[in-house]
Amino acid sequence: MKIRIFFISLITTMFLAGCSNLGFQAQVLPPPQATPTTQMVEQPVITATPPSPTATVVSSPTAFTLGGATGILFSSKRGGDYQDLYIQEFGSEKITRLTQGDSSTFPGPFSPNGQQIVFTGFGLTNSYIGVMNADGSDPVNLTNLPDVSDGFPAWSPDGSQIAFTSRRDGNNEIYVMDLYGYQLKQLTFNPTDDFAPSWSPVGNQIAFLSDRDNSTGIYSIYIMNIDGSNVKRLTNDGGNDYTPAWSPDASQIAFRSVQQGQSDIYSIAIDGTNLTNLTDDPAEDWSPSWSPDGSLIAFQTDRDGNWEIYTMQANGSDPINLTNNPTDDEIPYWKPSTDTANP
Question: Which of 100, 220, 320, 322 has its CA at 20 to 30 Å from residue 73's CA atom?
Fold first, then answer.
């Protein structure tokens, strides 16, 4: 199966509206406010409090781990007409459905301590950034701006902030906020599209996508400081690049690149050297995600006729189908084990 429209396609269309009223009900918090020139917006203290970022992940001492993780989070329509979140545990292969509603929900990564999941939810006319417990309970809508689409959330490595993309200024820009949707700060101010932030594990830089030096809709990877300064272009490979993902040691970034109509997973050193095609397969390979210990990369591929979640070694060898389901499974993120989750 060739490319179909789903969440990653929103990179070019940026957050299509949901199909109907939201059935997966996230608690709504008072919305933060910002303008294109706002650097920081202080907000009142809220009473609805997501779980503490200092909480630790709870897992069985006998849990099977792979790549420093106990399972894989992904989205799928296997339960109905809309994308919902699922976790597949390693070892037992147990599948747990986390969300269920009448519009789609797309995964973001686990918090560094493994206690929460950030996600993109869809309402009637817009998308929003939400956070839930790792078991799918207590979803909270963090952005909640009418007629504004937000998406592509990413945790800071200390778990205190979430970077995301928003169209609240009329085009895609990168913002950060605290865990409650407050302390909002705009990082990019560019008339072109800047989106899909990925936080360095060291915590001092953010990678993102932009078409600022290309034709409209042709994206490259850039790196900036966490205050938005010192923007540097990383990729200039002649392709269209998407979904940057830092390696846990912060030495490489994996990403999807469309070269001559073909999507493969590539890696590149953070100094711009050593560009490597890791998949080099005639199928579509998308959405790379590093395992917590850096030994593996999860990704989605349609090489079996539908989207499945695969893993491969960090050098691209030994691809293995994890999900093996006739329904499309997409956008993987690793569930960290107790030993790899930050305290």
Answer: 220
| Mean pLDDT score, 314-337 | 97
Is residue 33 very low, low, confident or very high in pLDDT (cuts 50, 70, 90)? very low
The first and second tokens of residue 333, run together, are 């993120």
- Does residue 147 come out as left (phi exceeding 0), alpha (psi in the -120 to 50 range) or beta? left
CA distance 286 to 289: 10
The pLDDT of residue 124: 79
> What is the four-CA torsion angle of 280, 286, 290, 294, rounded to 10 degrees?
0
Mean pLDDT, residues 235-250: 97
Tokens at residue 342, please? 């930050």
Read off φ and ψ for residue 10, nearest 5 degrees: -70, -10
pLDDT digit string, tens, across residues 108-124 = 999 999 999 999 999 87
- Please say whether the beta carbons of 162 and 179 come within 8 A: yes
Instruction: Write down the pLDDT at residue 35.
Output: 33
Task: Give the pTM.
Answer: 0.85
Q: Give first-to-last CA distance, the chain, whole Å.
A: 42
- Which position has the token pair 């409090």? 49
| Calpha distance 85→174 (Å, rounded) | 24
CA–CA dist 26, 131 (Å, integer): 9
- What's residue 36's pLDDT? 32
Q: Give strand pairing partners of 195.
A: 209
> In whole angstroms, what separates CA 332 from the centre of its chain?
9
Distance CA 294, CA 9 (A): 27
The fold of the 7-27+65-336 domain, in CATH, is Neuraminidase (2.120.10)
